[in-house]
Specification:
The protein is of the alpha/beta class. It has one domain: Rossmann fold (3-Layer(aba) Sandwich). Helices cover 47% and strands 16% of the residues. It is built from nine helices and eight strands. It has a five-stranded parallel sheet with strand order 2-3-1-4-8, with helices on both faces. Helix 4 runs parallel beside helix 5 and helix 6 crosses helix 7. The longest helix has 15 residues. It is globular and about 45 Å long. The two termini are 12 Å apart. Bound molecules: BIS(adenosine)-5'-pentaphosphate and magnesium ion. BIS(adenosine)-5'-pentaphosphate binds next to helix 1, helix 2, helix 3, helix 6 and strand 6.
Amino acid sequence: MKLILLGAPGAGKGTQAEILSERLNIPTISTGNIIREALKNGTEMGLKAKSFMDAGQLVPDDVVIGIIEERLAKDDCKNGFILDGFPRTVPQAEALDQMGIIIDKAIDIDVADEVIEKRLSGRRVCEKCGASYHIDNKPSAKGDLCEKCGGALVIRKDDRPETIKQRLSVYHEQTEPLEGYYKKAGKLYVVKGEGSVAEITAKVIEAVEA
Ligand code: AP5
Ligand code: MG
């Protein structure tokens, strides 16, 4: 199964991708996570992406397309994958098509902007392993430390209120047109993304199995 998870920043793409990845036994590929990892390791790509990311802007298409092409060529993608955060522009979707990759479904997790702002301002991430929490909805059992690795939980730089607004505006302008792109291809499934994580997972699975 080759899936795309579409949705605004904070719609729950990463949360649902992690659950689906275990259930379907296919890897999740998150361009955001790959870029953050590159940044942590001080690679040239990471440094190039940093200013865009911190400002809530998209990283240039050629950079992310290169990342995806390289990642999808790996062995573990042979039986399928879940794309979390890619494509995010029409040229990125076209690049995927040009790579000869046939997507089964694009599942759009639809969440109102006001809900997004609340979710992202409460998110905490592990500095060490990147695991994601939420102060109200998904607190760590270890308080300010990561349940998985004991690393410190921090606020993502792009989760500051003014940057959240910027990311939402970039989303509406550049990413939302992908709904039309995949609708036209007969691959779009829209899932209402408000409610508990388990409720949304049930709807996402329903779309996967439809
Ligand atoms: P990326 O890391 O992809 O961030 P994003 O799309 O902005 O999405 P988020 O990770 O913020 O949200 P999510 O939908 O994964 O939500 P989550 O599950 O964490 O990208 C970051 C940056 O990298 C971009 O701004 C850009 O600069 C660059 N980039 C990446 N890909 C790119 C591309 N293709 N092209 C160009 N640039 C690119 O949930 C959010 C919070 O809500 C969590 O705390 C979670 O616990 C909580 N939560 C989740 N579900 C629920 C629920 N149902 N109820 C209550 N709380 C919930
Ligand atoms: Mg994410």
